[in-house]
Design goal:
Layout (H helix, E strand, L loop, with lengths): L1 E5 L3 H12 L3 E5 L3 H8 L10 H10 L3 E4 L11 E4 L14 H11 L6 E5 L7 H13 L4 E5 L9 H6 L4 E4 L3 H11 L6 E4 L1 H32 L3 H9 L20 H14 L5 H24 L7 E5 L14 H11 L3 E5 L3 H10 L4 E2 L3 H5 L4 E4 L4 H4 L3 H7 L4 E4 L6 H7 L2 E3 L19 H13 L3
Helix pairs in contact: 1-3, 4-5, 8-10, 8-11, 8-18, 10-11, 11-12, 11-18
The structure holds uridine-5'-diphosphate-xylopyranose.
Uridine-5'-diphosphate-xylopyranose binds next to α8.
Length: 461
């Protein structure tokens, strides 16, 4: 089939690569000139495992090419996939500017029969509006708009696409259902057909549910700290109940990224617009906001204030395996440390992340070596569970730090190894008393620590 994918972000480019690999003739439209030039040179604008190889072989086989505008030359496209960004606007509503620009370009194409698959995450009813617009603007009576949400994760985008646990196709038109089923038949994955509005909402529901699991686990983790229980044991028990499932129960400093936070905000905004308050969604966001700073408050308490204190931050991306810092909890944490007068040194294995953070936070010293970051530090914050941090040389770190305090925001380190090496280790929900090593006071219990944390919060942060 002849396919056009508009938008060469994670979703668009990975989808295009996989469809070309499946034998389709694919055109990728990307309006960003720099990105387009790089793609034509065979360079993906972000790193994703296996993506470069698939792009290269399909470009070489002439099944995949790139253009700066949405135009048809010769044969019309059978399917046009919209995969442009739909970020959150200031009030949480989805910013659909890029989406409607694509709609205008679609309206300028000659009439005929086409299927438009909307992969961008858009509010419920957007597909209806697009179809009405196309009909109204250009009399495109035989254009079929389907919702076709995407569930891939950054860092495993190619794998997630090839092994999709479901392909959701939202349309009530047989022609669209047949065309999209044929398009994806090369993947041989389960297809779930439903109406367009349900498909649009399904995407938001999936992300909201995943986020809710994380916030739930974080809430239980905070209780673990108060009662002296261990969240890893609690979640292990939960995971063995198939009704609950073990995924997305990892406690820590909360969720970030370019999808979960904005989709929750958009869902809550949609509910508000309809006069319906989405209590669980709102609570999920609230717990997450609190969680993103919890460790900074703990560091503040342990160090008896942050003014002039030397703090090392390891991990800037919102999760390992990506160089993306969008929505990363580390950004909130850095802002808090800088505002509180701490002297911060930060490191991340991803060069792109280091460069972005250096641009965003001139007051933070971003270094190119993880051990340089901890040299002379009074506390080390581990904010992303990169393997390099898990495998760190703790004896070397002990000799470098001014104060052997490690706060593990992802519960990714082995507390026994660190404590045996002589560190004061504090995770999230690990139910450990927190010794106040700086003042020499022997210990502060989890309860006292959280009460203290609450004190810091009521102090205006
Ligand atoms: C997410 C969805 O998983 C995906 O289906 C959707 O298409 C896009 O949004 P992604 O943003 O790539 O994918 O990241 P994901 O792996 O879901 O992680 C999101 C955030 O949650 C990260 O900050 C991660 O650290 C955090 N997280 C994840 C936890 O805090 N605990 C967990 O147990 C899992």
């Amino acid at each position: 089939m002849r396919v056009c994918v508009v938008g060469a972000g994670y979703v668009g480019l990975v989808t295009a690569a996989v469809l070309a690999d499946g034998g389709h003739q694919v055109r990728v439209v990307e309006t960003d000139r720099k990105r387009l030039a790089a793609l034509r040179q065979g360079q993906a604008p972000f790193s994703e495992p296996d993506l470069d190889g698939i792009l290269a072989r399909n470009q070489a086989a002439r099944r995949l090419d790139y253009a700066g505008t949405l135009q048809e030359e010769g044969e019309p496209f059978d399917v046009i996939i919209i995969a442009v960004g739909t970020p959150a606007g200031p009030d949480g509503h989805t910013d659909l500017a890029a989406f409607w620009q694509v709609a205008a370009a679609l309206a300028a194409l000659p009439p005929g029969e086409r299927v438009v698959a909307v992969k961008s995450t858009v509010p419920v009813g957007t597909g209806d509006r697009l179809e009405a617009y196309l009909l109204d603007q250009a009399g495109h009576a035989s254009w079929y708009v389907a919702s076709n949400p995407e569930f891939l994760r950054q860092g495993s985008a190619v794998w997630d696409t090839l092994q999709a646990n479901r392909l959701v196709i939202g349309t009530s038109e047989d022609k669209a259902a047949v065309a999209l089923t044929a398009l994806y038949s090369c993947l041989a994955r389960p297809v779930l057909l439903m109406d367009r509005r349900s498909a649009e909402l399904m995407k938001y529901a999936a992300n909201a549910f995943l986020a809710m699991k994380i916030s739930f686990s974080n809430e239980i983790a905070n209780l673990c700290d108060l009662v002296g229980a261990d969240i890893s044991m609690v979640t292990l028990g939960l995971a063995m109940d198939p009704r609950i499932g073990g995924a997305f129960l990892g406690a820590g400093i909360g969720f970030g990224g370019s999808c979960l936070p904005k989709d929750l905000r958009s869902l809550a905004a949609a509910g508000r617009d309809l006069g319906y308050r989405m209590e669980l969604v709102e609570a999920t966001m609230k717990v997450n906001e609190h969680q993103r700073l919890l460790l900074a408050w703990r560091a503040e308490r342990l160090l008896e204030g942050l003014m002039g204190k030397e703090v090392a931050v390891w991990g800037l991306t919102y999760k390992p395996g990506t160089d993306d810092v969008r929505g990363a909890p580390a950004l909130d944490m850095l802002a808090y440390f800088v505002d509180s007068g701490a002297r911060v040194r930060a490191y991340d294995p991803a060069l792109q992340a280091r460069q972005e953070v250096a641009g965003l936070f001139p007051a933070v010293r971003v270094v190119n070596d993880m051990y340089q970051a901890v040299d002379g530090a009074q506390a080390l914050m581990v904010l992303t569970e990169w393997e390099a941090f898990v495998q760190a040389d703790w004896h070397r770190i002990l000799s470098l730090m001014a104060c052997p305090v490690v706060l593990d925001g992802r519960n990714c380190l082995d507390s026994r190894v660190l404590e045996a090496a002589g560190f004061c280790y504090l995770g999230v929900g690990r139910g450990r008393p927190a010794p106040d090593v700086v003042s020499g006071r022997q210990e502060m219990t989890g309860m006292a620590l959280l009460q203290a944390v609450a004190g810091v919060r009521s102090g205006g942060h």
